[in-house]
Amino acid sequence: MLAQTVPRRTATDTLLVATWNVRDFDSNKFGHGPRLAESFHYIAEVVSAFDLVAMQEVNEDMRPFEKVMDLLGPAWRYIATDITEGPSGNGERMVFLFDSTKVQFKHIAGEVVLPRAGLIDGEHQPARSPFLVRFQSGWFKFNLCTVHTYYGETSGAGYARRVAEIDAVAGFLQKRAANDGENYMLLGDMNVIGPGDATMEALKKHRFQLPSDLTLDNDELRWASNIGGDKRYDQIAFHVRKDELELGPSANNAGVLNYYKAVYTEDEAETYFPLQRTNKKWPDTPEGRKKYYNKEWRTWQMSDHLPLFVELKIDFTDKYLQRIRAGAQPVDRPRPDATDD
Question: Which residues form the Endonuclease/exonuclease/phosphatase domain (predicted)?
Fold first, then answer.
């Protein structure tokens, strides 16, 4: 299933970037778990299909997360935030996981703090602090910012705050890109409702491009990243320099990985029910158990979000040589720097 959905990883040609909200990983504070041992293996397998993954909803206790790191192996690294205090922060961290043989951390990382003039409603920081880290893979140097936007509702004050938060963060990064001339990617659980909605327009008005723009494929269902297949909460957006953004050559160079086609499939409720006797939320009837299993239980084993990914080209050799031949020496030669730790 992975091979049919996600492009093959390469050594030097392409970079596979994904964003994944792994639901409440892994406090079991809502009593639907705990996660089974096999779930940790599945999560590690999903992560290992990519080169770099932005993960949201990692809890304050990092011991479950470290189990995944052990399964991934010694080449994998991570950079994590502290938790954002307060009820909106929900005790969550945001984490970047990356294969250090392919991706280099460029020694800059921090949680984004908006300036006074850019505060949401003139007084608020985002509900969960966005996390910005500088990376390089091949010739491609980029600043990667992950977010978990305030959820709210589809109308009213909560919705307005959601829109304002996307607008504030995207606007901040647009100004930063204009000032330093560097590449920026914004990704994560943005709680975007869909094309044409104010949540999407708040992102695109700051000149961020999305994979659907690049592929001219605006089919909403293709980009749905929730378990129900009808929401576009998760997004990957780009604000980059000229000629430094090109999707990879694979036919499926951007999309969503629906792991439920292979693990915790819809017909397995009675298989897992005996393993979860300590979970008192399981209904008494087979029909009730099947509904609970599909809508709730398995989302606390994996997630109610599916990974959204994109394949990017990272070898600019041909373009660089073409500029040389044309007599236009690039000002900032985007050469590989594999010697950095």
Answer: 18-193
